[in-house]
Amino acid sequence: MFFALRDLRTARGRFALITGVVLLLSVLVAGLLGLTAGLAHQSVSALRALGSGDATFVLPADEDGAVDLDRAALTGEQVGRVTAADPSAVPLGVARIRVDDGTETGASAVAVGLGGPVGSVAPPASGEVLTSTGVDDEVGAGATELRIEGSALRVTGGVGDLWHSHTPVVVTDLATWAELAPRGGAATAVAVSSEGSVTQPGLAAVDPEGLVSSLPSHRAENTSLNTMTYMLLAVTALVVGAFFAVWGMQRRRDVAVLKALGSSTAAVVRDSVGQAAIVLAVGVSGGVGIAALFGMVAGGAVPYVVSPATTVYPAVLLAVLGLAGAAVSLRPVVSADPATALGALR
Predict the structure, then answer these.
(1) pLDDT at res. 8
(2) How far is 82 from 326, CA to CA, in rounded Å?
(3) 13 CB burial (10 A radius; 0-12, 13-18, 19+)
(4) Per-residue DSSP letters for 61-117?
(5) pLDDT beyond 50 at 180
C-alpha cells in the first residue's frame, strides 16, 4: 500500500475530487432509498400491517385478475360465499374519508370485521374508532371524539404510525365503515386462512405482497424511484471505474518501475484496489452519513425512513460496485511493462 498512500498524499486535489463525487453520489443513492422507503411507508403501511400475519386476501377480479384496490368492492353475496367456504374469514374495508375537524382533513378508514384481528390490526367495538399518529397530529392528541362524515365516533385508542395512500388511518369495525363509506360495497377484501379456500368465479386470492401491489399509486411511485436509484448505482460504478482507468494510464510508468524493482503484478493490483477502497470508504461513509443525518433532522417534514436498508445496504452496494468498476479499469496496471521503465524500448 506504500505506492497507493504516496499517490493519495501527492495528488490530494485529484483524489479529493473523486472522493467528493463519490460522496455526492452516495448522498443521492442513500437519500433516494430513504425517501422511497418513507413514501412506501406513507402509502402502504396499513396494508403491510394487515398482511403481517399469514392470511391470504380475496379481492374482486375481472378478466385480468384481481382488480386494483382503489376499485375493489365486494358485494354482500360475494362476502357470504367466501365466509361460507372459510368460516374463519374476516371481511376488510378500505376507503377514503374526510374528518370533520374544521379543516376537512383527508384520511383513510380501515375496517376489520369483528372476527379479527387481521395481521396486527384489531377492530374496536362497534361505533368506536382507533386513530393513527397522523390523525392525532391533525386533530390533536388526546381527543375523545372524532367526527367523520357527519358521524360522531368515540376514540378508544391508537394504532401507531399507519398510513394508506399518503393519508393517515383510522380503524373502525366493518359496520361503522359501511356507514362512513356506503359506496365501498359490503367489503373491500376478505382475509382467509388459505388461498385454496377460494374457488368462486369473480374472485381472486392474493398474498400480502399482492395486496400491497394492488395499490396502483404505490406501484407507480416505487417503479420511478427505484429506476432512478439503479441508474445512480450504475453511474457510481462508471465514474469510479473511469477515474481509476485514467489514473492507471497516468501512472503506468511508475507501476512499470515497481515491477522492474521486483513487485509482482498481484501486489500492484492489491495496491491499486486498496487505493480505490480508501477513496470509496471515505466517500461512501460520508455520503450515507449525511443522508442519514438529513433523514433524522427532516424526517418530520418529509417522508423519510432511516434504517439499515437505507444506510448499511446502500453503503455496501456502492462499495462493491465501486470496487468492481475499479477492478475493470486495472488493465493499464496489469499490462505495465518493466522493460519500458528500464528504457529497453527507447
Answers:
(1) 62
(2) 58
(3) exposed
(4) EETTEEPPTTT--B-HHHHHHHHHH-TT-EEEEEEEEEE-SSS-EEEEEEEE-TT--
(5) yes
DSSP 214-242: T-HHHHHHHHHHHHHHHHHHHHHHHHHHH
Residue 345 pLDDT grade (very low, low, confident, very high; cuts 50, 70, 90): very low
Is there a contact between 172 and 111 (Cβ–Cβ < 8 Å)?
yes
Say if CB 36 and CB 222 are below 8 A apart: yes
Distance CA 78, CA 56 (A): 16
* Mean of pLDDT values over 293-311: 87
> Measured in whole angstroms, how far is the alpha carbon of residue 78 from the centre of its chain?
34
Cα–Cα distance, 35 to 32 (Å, whole number): 5
**pTM, full prediction:** 0.81
Please report the pLDDT score of residue 94 as a whole number. 93
> What's the gap between Cα 17 and its chain centre?
30
Which has the closest alpha carbon to 58: 174, 219, 200?
A: 200
Q: What angle do CA 154, 118, 72 make, to 5 degrees?
A: 90
3-state helix, strand, coil in the chain (%, to 5): 55, 20, 25
Residues 88-118 have pLDDT tens digits of: 899 999 999 888 866 667 899 999 988 778 9
Q: What is the pLDDT of residue 336?
A: 62
Instruction: Specify whether the CB–CB gap between 181 and 173 falls below 8 A.
Output: no
Tell how far CA 105 is from the center of its chain. 26
Please state, in angstroms and rounded to a whole number, the distance separating the CA atoms of residues 13 and 5: 14
| Host H or E run for residue 170 | strand 167-173
pLDDT digits (tens, 9 = 90+) for 215-235: 888 888 888 888 888 888 888
Integer CA distances (angstroms), 144 to 19, 33, 72, 249, in order = 55, 38, 32, 72
What's the half-sphere exposure (Cβ side, CA atoms, 13 Å) at 69?
29
Mean pLDDT value across the chain: 83
